[in-house]
Write a structure and sequence with these properties.
The protein is an alpha/beta fold. It contains seven helices and nine strands. It has two domains: 153 residues, Rossmann fold; 60 residues, no CATH class.
């Protein structure tokens, strides 16, 4: 029988997962860092992962990015091949201009055109020839964001991308990221320590503790979310899950 003549029929309303993790476990020197993590992300979903330092957040992101070769563990990770990673530090090549950094490794005939458009999208139109050391920290992170999105990834993995920025620059980057994610519509995993950042940006918030997902909450709030009266309630619930008092 020709299998192609009988395509798989998905249940009505079923959306195939963009990311699927099953039984993902990782160990370092015999110590469990991730313990049997199983998750699905739907296409275009923005997921924030929060937790204390050492809870396994970055280890999970690196596993999804394919950056943990040689680490002991098991489980199945199904993610798109076309994915990008955005780190806390911009990791720009200092001997290349902003445009050259954005298009580095992009082998298409319209690479420069796409790179210029990506820089314009992040508010750096006209700075294509700037060297990294001539850019502020926030501008360098904008270049890194342009580099991540110019490839039109189906999955964006962001590991504390705004952690090193000052408070005002971080607010501007939140607005920029929110706009660009709506424009490009990749699936996103944002690792952060900032509960407010997670609620402001994400459709879904996960809390990790000792390598396990202990909270999985949808974020059903109106934008701008800080003005939604339910913001503080959700914030309090997540802080409680993290073992943090909000009494001050």
């Amino acid at each position: 029988m020709n299998a192609s003549a009988h395509p798989l029929r998905l249940p009505q309303g079923h959306v195939p997962a963009a990311v699927s993790l099953r039984g993902v476990t990782r160990r370092f020197s015999g110590r469990s860092v991730l313990s049997d993590v199983s998750l699905d992300f739907t296409p275009g979903q923005f997921v924030a992962l929060i937790g204390k330092s050492g809870s396994g957040k970055s280890t999970l992101l690196r596993a999804m990015a394919g950056l943990d070769d040689g680490v002991e563990g098991e489980g199945r990770i199904s993610v798109p091949a076309d994915r990008s990673v955005l780190f806390q530090d911009s990791r720009l090549l200092p001997w290349k201009t902003a445009l050259q950094n954005v298009v580095f490794g992009l082998r298409t005939t319209d690479a420069d055109e796409r790179g210029r458009a990506a820089l314009a999208d992040v508010g750096l139109g006209g700075r294509e020839d700037a060297w990294p050391n001539a850019l502020s920290g926030g501008e360098q992170q904008r270049v890194a964001l342009a580099r991540s999105l110019v490839r039109q990834p189906r999955l964006l993995l962001a590991d504390e991308p705004f952690g090193a920025l000052d408070a005002l620059t971080r607010i501007k980057m939140h607005e920029l990221l929110f706009r660009l994610i709506r424009q490009h519509q990749p699936t996103v995993l944002l690792v952060t320590h900032d509960v407010d950042e997670a609620i402001k940006l994400a459709d879904r918030v996960l809390v990790m503790e000792a390598g396990r997902i202990v909270v999985d909450r949808p974020v059903i709030l109106a934008h701008p979310r800080l003005k939604d009266p339910r913001f503080e309630t959700l914030r309090g619930e997540l802080l409680t899950a993290l073992g943090v008092s909000d009494a001050v």
